[in-house]
Amino acid sequence: MAGIAFRSGIRVRPIDMKNFQRDMRIFRVVYNSAWEKNWGFIPLTDEELVYLGNSLKSIVVPEMIVIAEKNSEPVGFMGMLPDFNFVLRHMKGRTNPVSIIKALYYSKKIKDLRMLLLGIKREYRNRGVDAILFREGFKGVKKGGYKRVEFSWILEDNIPTQRLVEMIGGRLYKKYRIYEKKLR
To answer: May I ask the CATH class of domain 2-167?
Structure first.
């Protein structure tokens, strides 16, 4: 499937840290387009984008946040980040000189990633864009020596993404549900 996307002109590149704000704006455009039909979706604002970008920039591994483009138009993205829960467990909820030293030490030992975001514009779905994003993004996983990727927040009715995860060897091990009830 990635070959089909490549032959149709889809190219994937890592996020450019020198042009981080530009690439964050690209992310915003694709995110707002790709997720607009999802339950509970609220468009990402410029202010939220700046805040998120500034919060995450220090832990971004460029090879694992990739953007798919066709003729220089962004059509999809995928973002994985090191799973800092590993570090936080060793800090035991404390922020003091010893726990900060532990954080610095254990942050270099992280072997798990979290797939936080995957988005493809509606008109480019089912054309191999997801496959080419995975192919290129997972090169960074191997290069970084990571052992496991957790795909988080896949909606229960998002069957295409669930099948894609299964095709690359993923398995469902946890479900979160949100229930709604009207209050009087």
So the answer is: alpha beta
